[in-house]
Amino acid sequence: MRMKPAAPFTQVLSLSAALALSGVTTPAGAADTIAGQPDISGVWAHAFPRPGQPADPRLDTGPLPSPPLKPAYMAEWTALRAKQKAADERGEPTAGLEARCLPDGMPSLMFAIYPLEVLQTPGRVTIIEEAFSQTRRVYLDEPQGKVGDVEPGYYGHSVGHWDGDALVVDTLGLKESVPGYRDIPHSDEEHIIERIRLIDPDILEDQMTVEDPKVLERPWSFRFVYRRMKGYHMLEYVCENNREYTDQNGGTHLQLGSH
């Protein structure tokens, strides 16, 4: 049986034409963006300072504000940081999530030392971190659930909407077992609000506020900034090299250096 010839290339719908048929239009000259939305798609790298280059005030996030933890949690966190510092000085850093091949979770995923890719499609913004191919989905213009109704996860449940030039993202439902940013503890009531926007065509800003009435005295706000990585193709990153080892006394350590 002969197969029917494929349609000529000229008959294949372009992305903008296909979106138009589905009721979604695109701005003039921007076939790969969604109407009414700023284009934050692309690959981004955290804007770490570059030695020898003049400082760009737009990239300066300033010192991280001290987390306003309630006294009991502050004592717990301070003791943990002291333990981590001592282990680092011995050359035996404590094994974090990444050493156990576990995801960073939120909000640590957004402070990525590996590239982040942002994909914009109708009804969704998807954020992919190169490390472990972690994927975070932000569902647009949907109602947020309630604490207890959302299945806890590493990235939580995120919904968002556009407020002018900013993508406002609301996240809850984060696993209590996953350490927060800089290992700061949190409860099942942790709630994260982000305002993600372009402050330059090649600079993306994420203003983040963490609320947690059980653990924090008040909301805790900080800011991440990213540079666009033009032409970069995301690489496969699979966690298959577990660097933990057990010594003769049964202690677990993190092996430094490559295997």
Give a verbal description of the structure.
This protein has 259 residues and is mostly beta strands. The chain has one domain (42-228). Helices cover 10% and strands 28% of the residues. It has 2 helices and 11 strands. The protein has helices at 15-21, 71-89; strands at residues 42-46, 116-121, 124-129, 134-140, 157-163, 166-172, 191-200, 203-211, 220-228, 244-246, 252-254. The strands form 2 sheets. Strands 1-2-3-4-5-6-7-8-9 form a 9-stranded mixed barrel. A two-stranded antiparallel ribbon has the order 10-11. A hairpin with an 8-residue loop joins strand 8 and strand 9. The longest helix has 19 residues, at 71-89. 22% of the residues are buried. Residues 1-32 have low confidence and may be disordered.
Would you summarize the structure shown here?
The protein is mainly beta. The chain is built from two helices and eleven strands, in the order H-E-H-E-E-E-E-E-E-E-E-E-E. The protein has one domain (42-228).
Which residues sit in consecutive blocks of at least 5 with pLDDT less than 50? 1-32
Oligomeric status: single chain
- What is the element string, with H for helices and E for strands? HEHEEEEEEEEEE
For the biggest sheet, the summary is: 9 strands, mixed, barrel
Strand residue content: 25-35%
Overall morphology: globular
